[in-house]
Design goal:
- By secondary structure, this protein is α/β, with parallel strands linked by helices.
- Helices cover 45% and strands 17% of the residues.
- The strands form 10 sheets. It has a 4-stranded antiparallel sheet.
- A hairpin with a 2-residue loop joins strand 28 and strand 29.
- Helix 3 packs across helix 4, helix 9 runs antiparallel to helix 10 and helix 17 packs parallel to helix 19.
- The radius of gyration is 36 Å and the shape is elongated.
- The mean pLDDT is 92.
Length: 883
């Protein structure tokens, strides 16, 4: 059986991707060893929720995450890509409670222990789904080291973190105003609140003075909260209200007497200059209440309904209470007017319920002291963000940070390690359950029922997963980690918290670089959502097109910090690319012999086109290494794509076809170059498209075994051939011009043509003289005449310019001089616009100073080429008009 008979006509991702992935696992290719002498590289996977299924956002982030571990593994690093999942307390508990509700069961029916048994069973059944789905994407994680935020090791780390901060006075328990989600029925942190623009109203209400002398008027967007009012406030310097300070007013509908106080918090210019103070339901009012020692009246239950402090409104939902209160205010003559008002209303990011500020006894972390070193680590450049613009967002959040509410009124999660003595009330905070009270010695203790915010445990992820607080070999080898890839939307939730937690607990930064990717949007730039029906299921995309096509679509053209647009056209183009390189590989194999002596091929055996493609390959290797070190993954993949599709498939393969029909050294040299370039290109492409590259590499002539652990390409100076590369690029430029003329004049590719090459440079003419076979193969040129004299050129010919010259095709009886003049005039117009564009771009200091030097140089070269083409076409036009 010949080599080609063993190779499928098409790469079959549905069949082969699973088999290839299993081969990687069986070989231990992804496993990292702490005792290795290789330099370390470590990246931790942002742990997806165990509730999750792989969505397109996961696929985008995971694909970007997988690029560097695959590249570093091939480059000789001991690479640990550490995976795991997050217990996701709120999301998981909500799913389990909803499932139980379908069965007519509540949490309370089961009790805490019974509920947790059910939660762990749910995790066992569903928690691994996203792990298996991520394997379909091809992520190269070390699954032997998979972690879970509630496994014993990580749970011990969480307890140690809590106890240490508590002992240092950085964790405290206090009655504070928190963001309360009535849907999830728990407190949530500030960054778990999304503020949405909402149509609402201003209700203007009169508060009668207690002495009957009149009233004061306020405006509120939340009239139901007036049930908890404990004061009215005016600015101390507001002359309109000096006589009212110290008096009292009657709270409408309730009848409670409340003081009129002076506080500089009040804005004199806003509304009437009088505000109601509800300390238990507004953060600013809470501060005012503390300053004036006002009572704190909480009027809401956990579900957002009115509690026993609401009088006759007790039991009503907050929405119902608002309607009834407004109606009663109007009936009693207290409601002055109602105005439409658009304002920002906080919603829970988990369930979208409107968040209520509620006074609650919670646990908090003091953030000011922890934030300072986290700010300095970025300022000093110990940690860098990609792109750098996210520094400002990071600084702004940490410099204005408030204390972090870390307690949640949930059962699934890390239970707070604090125990209360039933005899004396002493609180004991410890890593392990205490046997008795440290104050009175009683053994009657009960643990705080609340759990910790999910992000409290996630903050420890980069080092707890490596064994902290124990000094494990993994922690010593791989920490600090090198790289983190995550969405820019969780820079506050997670990134900042990992930084301050790591600095506090280990004295080291958690990672050196943070790559922030954007969102995946649809082709129109809209956010994907169920309501729009524009979501993309990555698992279906993998099933239809293969993981490589999906990965290519997500990375190609992407850049750090920016959203990417996904479309059907893009993924179909990605599949076409897979087919293109597979067909090129099959062409090579079809022209390989069972025995090929590649060792006998010397530099002298290489033809000009061989030297050109090898030189272009060295440029690609250098570009790829530069791109990867700058984390320019989208640009990097685009360069590899252009090399394979255009230079290798469309040009080089066409150039060598005649030599492959021969025998002898020329054929062997062509076979060697085909094999070598394909092998090196598959290595470069592997981090982006691992499956098809592994398949192709396995068939090529190489002695490295599996591609996943093969050596990463480095520039090989012996394959640098700048002169030959310049010559072939010049020929290609001329051939493109000839092909364009053929297409424009509808001259069949099968029709042999004669050309005249004009240049004032003899070395340019020599290139065309020495390469008749390439001109014949690429443009079906039968004869080539050379000219350095413009006056000798025929008038009845069509020209196509190239660098330092032009090609003329005499087409007697096929071309009209008038048409050629029109064509040249149109071409001059086009070139004029291109030259203006180039000059404007290069005159823009912002572009020349900020764009990569290679990009700027490319624009300079393009401008020079356009100027030369303009001069050549202008001279030709002059000749035709003078004829």
């Amino acid at each position: 059986m010949s080599r080609i008979d063993q190779i499928a006509a098409h790469f079959e991702p549905q069949k082969r991707e699973h088999e290839i992935y299993q081969a990687w696992l069986d070989s231990g290719a992804f496993e990292a060893h702490a005792d290795s002498a290789k330099p370390p590289f470590c990246l931790v996977m942002p742990p997806p929720n165990i509730t999750g299924i792989l969505h397109i956002g996961h696929a985008f982030t995971m694909t970007l995450q997988d690029i560097l571990p695959r590249q570093r593994r091939m480059a000789g690093y001991e690479t640990l890509y550490l995976p795991g999942t997050d217990h996701a307390s709120i999301a998981t508990e909500a799913k389990i409670v909803a499932k139980m509700a379908e069965e007519g069961i509540s949490k309370e029916d089961l009790g805490r222990e019974g509920f947790l048994e059910r939660a762990w069973a749910w995790r066992e059944q569903y928690g691994g789904n996203i792990v298996e789905q991520s394997k379909k994407l091809g992520v190269s994680s070390d699954w032997t080291k998979e972690r879970f935020t509630m496994d014993e090791g990580l749970s011990r780390a969480v307890r140690k973190f809590f106890v240490q901060l508590y002992n240092e006075g950085l964790i405290y328990r206090g009655e504070r105003l928190v963001n309360w989600c009535p849907g999830c029925q728990t407190g949530i942190s500030d960054i778990e609140v999304e503020h949405k623009e909402t149509d609402g109203h201003f209700w203007h209400i009169r508060y009668p003075l207690s002495d009957g002398s009149g009233y004061l008027q306020i405006a509120t967007t939340r009239p139901e909260t007036m049930l908890g009012d404990t004061a009215l406030a005016v600015h101390p310097d507001d002359e309109r209200y000096q006589a009212y300070i110290g008096k009292t007013a009657i709270l409408p509908l309730v009848g409670r007497e409340i003081p009129i106080i002076a506080d500089s918090y009040v804005e004199r210019e806003f509304g009437t200059g009088v505000v109601k103070i509800t300390p238990a339901h507004d953060p600013n009012d809470f501060e005012v209440g503390q300053r004036h020692q006002l009572p704190m009246v909480n009027i809401m239950n956990k579900d957002g309904s009115i509690n026993e402090n609401g009088g006759k409104y007790t039991g009503l939902s907050r929405e119902e209470a608002r309607k009834v209160i407004v109606k009663d205010l109007a009936a009693a003559g207290y409601l002055v007017k109602v105005e439409d008002h658009v304002h920002q209303v906080g919603h829970c990011t988990r369930c979208d319920s409107v968040v209520e500020p509620i006074l609650s006894l919670q646990w908090f972390v003091k953030m000011e002291e922890l934030a300072k070193p986290a700010i300095e680590a970025v300022r000093k450049g110990e940690i860098t963000f990609v792109p750098e613009r996210f520094d400002k967002i990071y600084y702004n959040w940490l410099e204005n940070i408030r204390d972090w509410c870390i307690s949640r009124q949930l059962w699934w999660g890390h239970q707070i390690p604090a125990w209360y003595c039933d005899e004396c009330g002493e609180i004991t905070v410890a890593e392990e359950e205490p046997g008795k009270c440290t104050q009175c010695g009683s053994s009657n203790l009960h643990q705080d029922p609340d759990t910790l915010d999910t992000w409290f445990s996630s903050a420890l992820w980069p080092f707890s997963t490596l064994g902290w607080p124990d000094q494990t070999p993994e922690l010593e080898k791989f920490f600090p980690t090198d790289f983190l890839v995550t969405g820019y939307d969780i820079i506050f939730f997670w990134v900042a918290r990992m930084i301050f937690a790591s600095l506090k607990l280990t004295g080291q930064i958690p990672f050196r670089r943070v790559y922030l990717n954007g969102l995946v949007r649809d082709a129109q730039g809209r956010k994907m959502s169920k309501s729009l029906g524009n979501g993309i299921d990555p698992l279906k995309a993998i099933e239809e097109y293969g993981a490589d096509a999906l990965r290519f679509t997500l990375v190609n053209g992407s850049s750090a910090g920016n959203d990417m647009r996904f479309s059907q056209d893009k993924i179909e183009a990605a599949r076409n690319f897979c087919n293109k390189i597979w067909n090129a590989f099959r062409f090579a194999e079809m022209n390989f012999d069972d025995e090929m002596d590649f060792a006998s091929v010397t530099i002298e055996d290489l033809a000009r086109e061989d030297r050109w493609i090898l030189h272009e390959l060295q440029k690609l290797i250098q570009q790829t290494n530069d791109n990867i070190e700058k984390f320019e993954f989208g640009l990097c993949l685009g360069n590899i794509y252009a090399f394979l599709w255009d230079l290798f498939c469309d040009w080089y393969i066409e150039m060598v076809k005649p030599r492959l029909r021969q025998t002898g050294k020329s054929r062997t040299a062509a076979q060697f170059v085909l094999n070598y370039v394909l092998a090196q290109a598959m290595k470069l492409l592997h981090p982006f498209m691992p499956f098809i590259t592994e398949e192709i590499f396995g068939y090529l002539i190489q002695d490295e075994g599996m591609l996943v652990t093969a050596s990463w390409p480095q520039v090989d100076p012996k394959y640098n051939f700048p002169e030959e590369a310049a010559e072939i690029n010049l020929l290609m430029e001329a051939v493109r011009g000839i092909r364009n003329i053929r297409a424009e004049k509808q001259v069949a590719p099968s029709k042999e043509i004669a050309i005249i090459v004009h240049s004032e440079r003899s070395e340019v003419l020599a290139i065309f003289e020495e390469n008749p076979a390439l001109l014949k193969q690429l443009a079906n040129v039968g004869s080539t005449s050379l000219s350095s004299d413009k006056d000798s050129l025929p008038l009845n010919a069509i020209s196509a310019g190239f660098t330092s010259g032009a090609v003329y095709i005499p087409l007697e009886n096929l071309v009209d001089i008038g048409e050629e003049i029109s064509r040249l005039e149109a071409e001059l117009d086009r070139l004029t616009q291109e030259i203006k564009r180039g000059e404007k771009m290069l005159a823009n200091e912002s572009f020349t100073s900020k764009a990569p030097e290679a990009v700027v140089q490319k624009e300079r070269d393009k401008l020079q080429k356009n100027r030369e083409s303009y001069a050549a076409n202008q001279e030709r036009l002059k000749q035709l008009k003078e004829a």
